[in-house]
Amino acid sequence: MDYSLLLKIERGSKADGKNQCTNQERVYHLGVIDYLQEWNLNKMGERFLKRRIKGMDGQQLSALKPSEYSQRYLDYMNKYIFK
């Protein structure tokens, strides 16, 4: 499982579609991308190799169990986006 928040900020004040909001100066477009990847043996192997062979911090990897990844994602959104 892997997904990311995509945020695009444009100058201007005209919103013309879904998943947008605007103020007097900018239009904000929000989307969630990369959400169709499956947590499978390949992702488990990727995580194992990055942690054990490359010595990477497991909490910073995108190859993370879906429950842990979603909690990290929600924590980030609550801390920085939905203050």
In short, what is this structure?
By secondary structure, this protein is α+β, with helices and mostly antiparallel strands.
User: Considering DSSP H and I runs of 4 or more, what fraction of the residues is helical?
Assistant: 25-40%
The number of domains: 2
Q: Proportion of β residues?
A: 15-25%
Tally the helices: what do you get? 2
Q: Radius of gyration in whole Å, from Cα?
A: 17 Å
The poorly predicted ranges are none
Strand order across the largest sheet = 1-3-2
Q: What class do helices, strands and sheet pairing give? A: alpha+beta
Morphology call: elongated
Biggest pleated-sheet summary = 3 strands, antiparallel
Let me know the number of strands.
3
User: Could you state the order of secondary-structure elements as H and E?
Assistant: EEEHH
Report mean pLDDT, rounded to a whole number. Answer: 80
End-to-end separation in angstroms reads 26 Å
Structure characterization notes:
The protein is of the alpha+beta class and 83 residues long. The chain has 2 domains: 1-36, no CATH class; 38-83, no CATH class. It is 34% helix and 23% strand. It contains 2 helices and 3 strands, in the order E-E-E-H-H. It has helices spanning 41-52, 66-81, and strands at residues 4-11, 20-22, 26-33. Strand 2 (20-22) and strand 3 form a beta hairpin. The longest helix is centred in the last third of the chain and has 16 residues, at 66-81. The protein is elongated and about 50 Å long. The two termini are 26 Å apart.
